[in-house]
Amino acid sequence: MVDFVADYHRDIESFPVRSQVKPGYLRPLLPDSAPAEPETVEDVFADLWSKILPGITHWQSPKFFGYYPCNVSTAGMLGEMLCGGLNVNGFSWITSPAATELETIVLDWLGKLLHLPEEFLSTSGKGGGVIQGTASEAVLVVMLAARKRALKQVSSAAQGMSEAEALSKLVVYSSDQTHSCVIKACQVASIATENFRPLPTDASTNFALSPAVVRKAIAADVEAGLIPFFLCGTLGTTSSAAVDPLEELGDIAKEYGMWYHIDAAYAGNACICPEFRHYLNGVEKADSYNMNPHKWLLTNFDCSTLWMKDSEFLLAALSNKPVFLRNEATDNNLVVDYKDWQIPLGRRFRALKLWMVMRLYGTSGLQSFIRSHVSSAKHFESLVRADSRFEVMAPMTFSLVCFRLRTLPGSQDTSNSLNSKLVDALNRKGNILVTHTELSGIYTVRFAVGATHTELQHVQAAWEVIQAEANHLLNGKQ
Ligand code: PLP
What we know:
Elements: H1 2-11, H2 41-52, H3 74-86, H4 97-113, E1 128-132, H5 135-157, H6 163-169, E2 170-175, H7 181-188, E3 196-199, H8 211-223, E4 227-234, H9 246-255, E5 259-263, E6 288-291, H10 293-296, E7 304-308, H11 312-318, H12 328-331, H13 351-386, E8 390-392, E9 400-405, H14 415-429, E10 435-439, E11 442-448, H15 456-475
Parallel strand pairs: 2-3, 2-4, 4-5, 5-6
Antiparallel strand pairs: 1-7, 6-7, 8-9, 9-11, 10-11
Helix pairs in contact: 3-13, 4-13, 5-7, 5-11, 13-15, 14-15
The structure holds pyridoxal-5'-phosphate.
Pyridoxal-5'-phosphate binds at residues 68, 134-136, 179, 181, 234, 236-238, 263, 265-266, 292, 304.
């Protein structure tokens, strides 16, 4: 299996980046039921090559520029192997003390690398970090904590208001660029979806939230008797890597007693480099902060890190103590039981891979990884700018370039349909993979540099592929 994975990574550039299969391709290739008798691993391998690999989109290809990256590394894989090999279920400290304690320690390490305020570290006594599976889970658990806090505040301030009535009045604020995980958290946390405010952004603020817009929306809601309780700022939005004004948002949240969360799933990773750390200014005003090392910090999926200043309301929202889990360390409050910081009970020993990555790369290795992608993305941006048939659609701050092809005068195509044809053609041919978004209603191509194996040469080659496709679309030339 190790050889298979090694060969896969060696040969990865020979596969079309996006899987070329059609929906339902696998069912006719596999038996209807599981085998009655054991099969051999050789049989499974044969199917792996012939039936499974064609249905893989190669996220680890250096020619993968879609979505945001999903990093891999030898260190991360070793961590995964250890995690699978030991296969502990570390939901409470007692179920594997090392799993809990290592997680606390590596989250402090990473928190220090990011220069998070002391309150976010476990050494503060009240706060600390935890590994979630995804940013969506991180946002959900902090929203549940915020809801608990808000309902407590309301019940002490407005006597007589039922919890159900208070819940129906709670309002969540973020920008229209915020990841859909925030509305999903509202859905799960029973926050009325009409009380979710995805506030408008546009090119004039580079698609970042405007504090004036936030204030206006909050004032109108307060006037209407609603209760602002959760504000989510984003460092590196999904569509264009915009950065919300984190400091000003922190002031607004404080003024209205709201929980302030910062989602930095992708771009937060860059903040381990001193030259990017200033984007995180304002985190000192936040209640909680999350980022995904599994996106862009060499840690195999899944590893989404979340820190908060005070775990009190998280525990109030999620902790319970069934008799079958009781033990002396828990009963005497001597330990953290991470089951109380997440939705499921069971949890993998994910800290091993972050520990491996941080040790085997060192801070310097991690920083040069980020810097090499940022400089390749800058190169790509300069190539786009140098070709007048294209335009850059948003500032390039980290390693995401948003661009589009301009339509030729007199062309039948609208810009949106031309660019959608461009993306479809690129992905269908499979030489590279890019994805798209809309910025102010304009179809925009996203080119995210960040796959572990991507180097400058891949970015240069990708640009040549894009230019050739543009020639073809605009002039019928290949
Ligand atoms: N937040 C941001 C800013 C993202 O870009 C993404 C995914 O790209 C997410 C949250 C969701 O991440 P996850 O898949 O870890 O839930």
